[in-house]
Amino acid sequence: MSNQAPYDVIFFDMDGTLLPLEVKDFLLPYYELMQAACAREGWDPHHFREALNTGIFSMYDHPTTETNETAFWRVFFDELYGGEEPSQQQKDAMRHFFEEFYEHEFNKAGEGVVPNPASARALATLAQKGYPLYLTTMPMFPYRAIEWRMKWANCDITMFDRVTTFDNSTAVKPHLAYYEENIALADVPSERILMVGNNTEDDLDCMKLDMDAYLITDYLINDNFFDVDEVKHGSMEEFATWVESLPPCTSTHALGWRDRADELRIGSEE
Questions:
Q1: Which residue range(s) make up the domain with 41?
Q2: 76, 150: one domain
């Protein structure tokens, strides 16, 4: 069809893309807040941080038969308790600690973040044109943490048909398995998907699967010295202007999934 829109679904990275924030500027207060919360519980914050990091690193390399969350807790508990199996009570208490931290403390890590109005403008334009949106951020956090970070960006997380989190994903970027999972859930040809991100490895590796990409250059990460002229690129302001030129979405097929469970599929078929 000559009048067919170029994409059926748009994938978005968060940090350095929709959220104008260097990762290091987020991680420093994050760890400080987490260690302070540990100290209030009477735990050794340094040992806790070591276990936390070990659990985080496990999400980079584990069987895709388990979620990132499952890999995290398995390795985190093993490191925290020195290889001894914690009781169910200990596991429940630790999970409750994390839930409370993300609900009441985590938001402080975003104090001082100044949102880029172009991010919300780009999302609003695409939503108005009918494009399904996926927030394909690194799935190493629970939904509540990502929800807070989108608030820092002054973006509405409910605009996204899928948000990749540690409990609904089985791989992380730049593993192709991460993109393969999300392409499968979008249920459209990979070449009909646009990935918007700022990292030439984590975000542009999707092009190996024939996805298209737009590189946001405001907080560009280019550790592999990629030639940015080989891909569409520009500031978030330029991207927001560019999407205004896109025609309305012509696909009614890409529905989006909030997680990997069939019964939680959302979209026009419900």
A1: 24-110
A2: no
